[in-house]
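FW: tagging you since you asked about this chain on Friday. Here's the raw sequence from the shared folder, copied in full. Didn't touch anything.
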Amino acid sequence: MLHIHFTAEDMTRVRFTPRPSPVPELHAALLMLGAPHEGLLFGRWRGRLLRTLPGAAEPLAELVPGGAAPHFLDVLGGTREEGFALIRSARPEFVRSELERVYAGQGPVPPWIRALHHGDAAAWGTLDRAQRAAYETVLAPVWPLLQDLHRAEFTRYALTAAEQGLAAALVAVAPGSRLRDGVWEWPTAPAAREVPEVGEALAAGEAREVPEIREIRLDGRGLVLLPTFHWRGGPLVQDLPDRPVVLTYPAGGGIPPTPESRESRGARGEAGGLSTALGRTRTEVLRALTEPRTTTGLARHTGISNATASGHAAALRAAGLIATTRTGRSVHHEQTPLGALLLAGAG
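HL: got it, structure written out here
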């Protein structure tokens, strides 16, 4: 079980990542490569990736001797390049201390790891090539789909928080969890695990279990929510000093994302995508507000009643997707930049 302790300040510092983060998603995918208990849904996916993962990715396994991984790999970043750059920018003393921690009592240290410990540029190049090779094989083919899935998850969270409050939005992230007395209690099973690191699955087969009950105290640092569409186990936690705690949680339909053709992605976008998250009518209302409209004009444009248009507009406004202005007796609604961004991404 996982207990996350909030202060009053932390309740104002909960944020949901607006877009997927490639490095944590890559870590989660690599972790799933070594999860034999998911053979039914992930077996074919795992077999395909293990056959196609290039040799250039093999050094990743040497970063996780004994199932432990260095924390300098714990980064976010909105793009692959940004995430890799954050890893490369880690303080040299932090890199050294983390390599020493994970290799303590683990026997011989590979030469390139020794060189990385000394800050050798060639060793950093080895790590960079390994991560890029893994990314191109594992994530690049499904990245457009992951962006769509993340956008839908973000929208569901925003609407739940706007309509029902933060507590309801948090509980919706983890069905069966509850927020009481400032503590977010996750279900007993599956157990929380440490954050997966690049190559951990290749080396250890599975992330090590954390204690049966893990207590996370935010202490004013805030909480970042990041959905992952590969990992199917318990929550994955980045809890480093002087940083917001990052909670990566399993989302999506429970099956691994698979590459889509341009045609099938377009068809899916028409039938689902944003409409799945908002509902078809509410999505039509949002689309109609590319220009300011009154409630009556909105109802006429979308073919719904004034009361229904007003209700959908209120929900979209609470989620920050539209803005409403009043001039005298006239009320006009229009998209906010966030609403326009969601529609642009949905195609």
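FW: The two ends are 40 Å apart (CA to CA).
HL: agreed, and The first strand starts at residue 2 and ends at 5.
FW: great, closing this out.
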